[in-house]
Design a protein that fits this description.
- The complex is a heterodimer.
- Chain A is built from 14 helices and two strands; from the N terminus they run ααββαααααααααααα.
- Chain A is mostly helical.
- Chain A has a single domain, classed as Orthogonal Bundle (MetI-like fold), CATH 1.10.3720.10.
- Chain B has a domain of about 180 residues: Orthogonal Bundle (MetI-like fold).
- Classes of the chains: A mainly alpha, B mainly alpha.
- At the A-B interface, helix 1, helix 2, helix 4, helix 5 and helix 6 of A face helix 1, helix 4, helix 5, helix 6 and helix 7 of B.
- Chain A: It is a multi-pass membrane protein.
């Protein structure tokens, strides 16, 4: 009887002395992480909560006294407003077009750069450069220096061949914005896909070649399947950045001519129209859209990540 | 023979593609050295005489606003936020790689998920907060926001760079009686330093480029370089050389940082998923 009562008693002090030190050690391990974690939660998560709350209020900054709770009214208004609905559609169109075009162009360029030829490094540098121009500067370059109907470079070059002199931005505003973004984002896709191409199993390709497979067969049956996840990664990261694009739309068309995407609309509805509630509701919708993309993106990143970890 | 021809042919196509993609930048550079009259001609004047007038105009000799305050603001916002990011991300990355906490992958993915939420959705509360706290048109607000914008990228990149330090080497140093600061300085730093430098350069680029927050949250005092550039959006008349000079000067730090970080650029931009 004494044995059964002393045993836990003997165990208790031992556990209480060990427990704080183990806990202390766990906190010592965690400590370096905490500043970054707390900072991120405070600066990025709290504003989203605030946005969510504001989105349930009818709140025009010019009439602050008239602020009141309206439930889902803002969402109803955002989803039924023709302009806002149009901006959702524009966002989808812009994102899909830019991501697909830059992905295809990036793949072609990556395949070209994957072979040895004189000056490969120099060509790589030339191709990366568009990505390293400040986005506003790039948009200004396209708007004034390339697209200008009177003295822009495009019409200047068309002049030599006796071609027409179109007003690029007025005729095809969305395409004009998209082209400038494709120019900037193709290098990004190229870099990711080039990394993918260079991580291919060369022995497998040699083996296929010995077995008599042609270039096209190797591309379709070996290269493309290997590149699939790099293509997915490029598409998803590109989508995340381009869904949020503000600079090109703001600079090239100032959201006019039917090119206002959601970020621009959110900016405009609170910066110019002072509709805080509506802007927040639109913002929440952007978040929901991004979460859909992000869920897929996280899955792709995580599968590549786990492969890297297991390889290491 | 056929194979040699094809290889050179494709090399030529690659060169052509490179030139086509670079052409707008080359043309921008050339135009920036032309006089305004030569810059706005159709057909373009390729061989016009060169002048620095565009640059003189941009730097305010023509009576326009000087770009220097905006350039200084951008430098402060980018450099200080990058330093803050390193200060916060280095210990965090250490706790996610060399001495990992439990469930470290979950923490890593939390950082990533914050990057995937669009910044525009947090803009309004940040604006209202800044307005009530008297922080509008204050460069330090941008420093804090840019730090949060880049911290997840930096944590991911540095985690992947620190993870490249072999655990066995660290253990060996520890067995030999080396203390943590010594281990960090002598073992970890030499291996991880190029990666840390690349991370800093990429954070610098993203801060330097940012427009939306700077546009909404700054005015006359804290205006950054991209906001300064938006002044050219609706300009009319002869100003092409000036726009080109301005765009080029403001892009130079990014071009320099980007080329310096070229080898690690993919790893950074893909958040460490691609090496």
């Amino acid at each position: 009887m004494t044995a059964t009562t002393t045993a836990p008693l003997a165990g208790t002090p031992a556990r209480t002395t060990r427990q704080p030190s183990a806990r202390l050690r766990a906190w010592a391990t965690r400590a370096p992480l905490l500043p970054a974690l707390v900072f991120m939660i405070a600066v990025t998560q709290l504003p989203f909560v605030a946005t969510l709350v504001i989105s349930f209020f009818d709140w025009n900054a010019l009439y602050p006294k008239a602020r009141h709770f309206t439930g889902l009214d803002n969402y109803h208004q955002v989803l039924t407003d023709a302009d806002l609905r149009h901006s959702v559609w524009t966002t989808v169109l812009l994102t899909v077009a830019v991501v697909l075009a830059s992905l295809v162009l990036g793949l072609v360029l990556a395949l070209l750069l994957d072979r040895r030829f004189p000056g490969r490094g120099a060509v790589r540098t030339l191709l990366i450069a568009p990505f390293l121009v400040v986005p506003v500067a790039a948009a200004l370059l396209w708007k004034h220096v390339l697209y200008n109907p009177e003295y822009g470079l495009f019409n200047g070059l068309l002049h030599y061949v006796g071609g027409p002199q179109p007003d690029w931005i007025s005729n095809t505003p969305l395409l004009a914005v998209e082209a400038s973004l494709v120019w900037q984002w193709t290098p990004f896709m190229m870099l990711i896909l080039l990394a993918g191409l260079q991580s291919r199993d060369q022995q497998q390709i040699e083996a296929a070649r010995v077995d008599g497979a042609g270039d096209w067969q190797i591309f379709v049956h070996l290269t493309l399947p290997h590149l699939r996840r790099y293509l997915e990664l490029g598409a998803l990261l590109g989508s995340i950045y381009i869904v949020q694009n503000f600079d090109a739309v703001f600079t090239i068309t100032s959201g006019g001519l039917g090119t206002a995407n959601l970020p621009y609309t959110v900016y405009q509805s609170f910066y110019q129209a002072h509709e805080n509630g509506l802007a927040s509701a639109a913002g929440v919708l952007v978040v929901i859209g991004s979460i859909v993309i992000a869920t897929f993106a996280l899955r792709v990143v995580s599968s590549l990540f786990r492969e890297e970890v297991s390889r290491a | 023979m056929n194979a040699v021809l094809r290889r050179n042919g494709l090399g030529l196509v690659a060169w052509l593609a490179g030139i086509v993609f670079f052409l707008p930048i080359a043309w921008m550079a050339l135009t920036s050295f032309h006089s305004e009259a030569d810059a706005a001609t159709n057909p373009p004047s390729f061989a016009a005489s060169l002048t620095l007038d565009g640059y003189r105009e941009f730097f305010g000799s023509g009576g326009g606003a000087s770009p220097w305050p905006a350039l200084v603001n951008s430098a402060v916002a980018s450099v200080v936020s990058t330093l803050l990011v390193l200060l916060l991300a280095l210990p965090a990355a250490y706790a996610l790689s060399i001495r990992p906490v439990k469930k470290w992958t979950d923490v890593l993915f939390f950082f990533l998920s914050t990057k995937m939420l669009p910044a525009v959705a947090g803009l309004l509360p940040v604006y209202l907060f800044a307005k009530n706290a008297g922080l509008l048109d204050n460069i330090w607000l941008l420093v804090v926001l840019y730090t949060s914008m880049n911290l997840p990228i930096a944590v991911w990149m540095m985690q992947s760079f620190l993870a490249e330090v072999p655990v066995a080497v660290i253990e060996a140093a520890r067995v030999d009686g080396a203390r943590l600061p010594t281990i960090l300085a002598r073992v970890v730093a030499p291996i991880a330093l190029p990666g840390i430098a690349a991370t800093a350069l990429i954070c610098f680029i993203f801060s330097w480029n940012e427009l939306l927050f700077a546009r909404v949250l700054t005015g006359v005092v804290a205006e950054t370089a991209p906001v300064f550039l938006t002044g050219f959006i609706t300009s009319q008349g002869l100003f092409l050389a000036k726009v080109c000079a301005a765009s080029l000067v403001i892009s130079l730090p990014v071009l320099a940082a980007g080329f310096a970080a070229q080898d690690k650029l993919v790893q950074g931009l893909s958040l460490g998923a691609v090496k």
